[in-house]
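wait is this the right file?? whatever heres the structure
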C-alpha cells in the first residue's frame, strides 16, 4: 500500500507541475554570459526572516522563477542555475543570487524536475 501511495503522490506532483507550466507560466529569457535560452517560468517569491548587523529584525525577499529543470540547457546539456545568471521577464532584468542560508536555487519536487530560482531585480531592460 505504501508504494501505491508514493506513486500516487508522484503522479499528483507531476500533474501539478504540468498545470503550472502550461497555465501559470510566462516565457522568460534565461542567460549566462553570452549563452541564452528561452524558458517558461512561473513567478513566485521567497521571504527569509533575518536579523541585521544592528540586531533589527528584517525580511530578505527574492523574486522566484519556477522553471522545468530540463529546459535550462544552452546546447551542451542541462545546467543548474548559478549566481549572476540573468532572467529577463518583460522589461525587467533579474540577477540570480543566493538567499541567506541557502543556495541560489532549490529543487521543488522529489524528482528534481522543477527548480525554484532565487533572483533580485537588477535593472530595467534597455
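ok assuming it is, sequence goes like this
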Amino acid at each position: 500500500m505504501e508504494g501505491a501511495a508514493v506513486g500516487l503522490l508522484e503522479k499528483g506532483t507531476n500533474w501539478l507541475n504540468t498545470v503550472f507550466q502550461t497555465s501559470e507560466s510566462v516565457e522568460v529569457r534565461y542567460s549566462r554570459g553570452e549563452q541564452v535560452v528561452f524558458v517558461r517560468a512561473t513567478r513566485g517569491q521567497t521571504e527569509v526572516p533575518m536579523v541585521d548587523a544592528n540586531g533589527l529584525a528584517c525580511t530578505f525577499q527574492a523574486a522566484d522563477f519556477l522553471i522545468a529543470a530540463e529546459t535550462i540547457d544552452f546546447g551542451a546539456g542541462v545546467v543548474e542555475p548559478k549566481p549572476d545568471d540573468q532572467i529577463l521577464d518583460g522589461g525587467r532584468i533579474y540577477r540570480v543570487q543566493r538567499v541567506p542560508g541557502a543556495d541560489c536555487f532549490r529543487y521543488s519536487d522529489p524528482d528534481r524536475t522543477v527548480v525554484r530560482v532565487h533572483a533580485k531585480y537588477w535593472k530595467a531592460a534597455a
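The chain has one domain: 2-124. so i think its the right one actually
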